[in-house]
């Protein structure tokens, strides 16, 4: 199972903040969604499973110990920021042609009570071709060392704008969705590209920022 205690991270982008998180060894990586995986999805969309609340008869409706551990580590990674709450964890399984079109994780609702402040995109299973995570509004780094983790003009990344992270099991991308004033970063526009062969499994860890409302 992936944990956030045996990882390394590299600063990938500063404004907005992007960190690339990777495990020194992912040989023993496995994903915790096998008992609750739903039937195969339709070609155009991923199947999703909430890890906190498995939708099967007689399963517990409270988060399991591994889920609670992941939630604590996600909060710790961000410095236990005040008014930041980790949302229920969601796993996504993409079969062949499964994808998710370009979108924002934030909704522009921070001023009205809360919004999704940060995102972890964790790759749990990479037995696939394609399926990268594309950020068309980011500038690809010059250093070739990053080509281990991003597409550099070959394969899926050829002809694509911006940056496409490869779905490597045990690795993750973390980014800030909101500016200090609560507005969203347009650079976080992203998509899950189509899987062309095999299956990709990912895990979304979203953080919801909701400060107390001021009483006038």
From TrEMBL:
Coiled coil ranges:
none
Query: Domain of life, per the record?
Result: Eukaryota
Q: Which residues form the signal peptide?
A: 1-27
Please provide an example of a Pfam family that matches this protein in its UniProt record.
Answer: 2OG-FeII_Oxy_3
According to the UniProt entry, its GO molecular function terms are:
iron ion binding; L-ascorbic acid binding; procollagen-proline 4-dioxygenase activity
List cellular component terms (GO).
Answer: endoplasmic reticulum
Write out the biased-composition intervals (Pro residues).
Answer: 35-44
The chain positions of domain Prolyl 4-hydroxylase alpha subunit read 10-208
Provide the protein name.
Prolyl 4-hydroxylase alpha subunit domain-containing protein
Required co-factors? L-ascorbate
Q: Which InterPro entries match?
A: P4HA-like, Pro_4_hyd_alph, Pro_4_hyd_alph_FE2OG_OXY
Q: Where are the compositionally biased (Low complexity) regions?
A: 45-54
Provide this UniProt record's keywords sorted from A to Z. Answer: Dioxygenase, Iron, Metal-binding, Oxidoreductase, Signal
Q: Where is this region: Disordered?
A: 29-60
């Amino acid at each position: 199972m992936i944990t956030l205690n045996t990882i390394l991270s590299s600063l990938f982008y500063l404004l907005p903040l992007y960190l690339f998180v990777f495990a020194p060894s992912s040989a023993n990586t496995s994903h915790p969604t096998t008992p609750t995986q739903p039937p195969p999805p339709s070609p155009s969309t991923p199947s999703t499973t909430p890890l906190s609340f498995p939708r099967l008869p007689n399963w517990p409706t409270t988060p399991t110990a591994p889920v609670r551990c992941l939630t604590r580590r996600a909060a710790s990674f961000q410095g236990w920021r005040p008014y930041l709450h980790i949302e229920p964890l969601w796993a996504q399984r993409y079969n062949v042609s499964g994808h998710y079109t370009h979108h924002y994780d934030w909704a522009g609702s921070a001023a009205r009570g809360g919004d999704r402040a940060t995102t972890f995109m964790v790759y749990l299973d990479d037995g696939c071709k394609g399926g990268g995570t594309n950020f068309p509004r980011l500038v690809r780094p010059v250093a070739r060392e990053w080509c281990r983790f991003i597409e550099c003009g070959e394969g899926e990344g050829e002809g694509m704008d911006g940056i496409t992270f490869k779905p490597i099991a045990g690795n993750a991308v973390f980014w800030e969705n909101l500016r200090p004033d609560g507005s969203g970063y347009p650079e976080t526009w992203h998509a899950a590209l189509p899987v062309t062969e095999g299956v990709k499994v990912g895990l979304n860890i979203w953080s919801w920022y909701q400060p107390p409302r001021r009483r006038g």
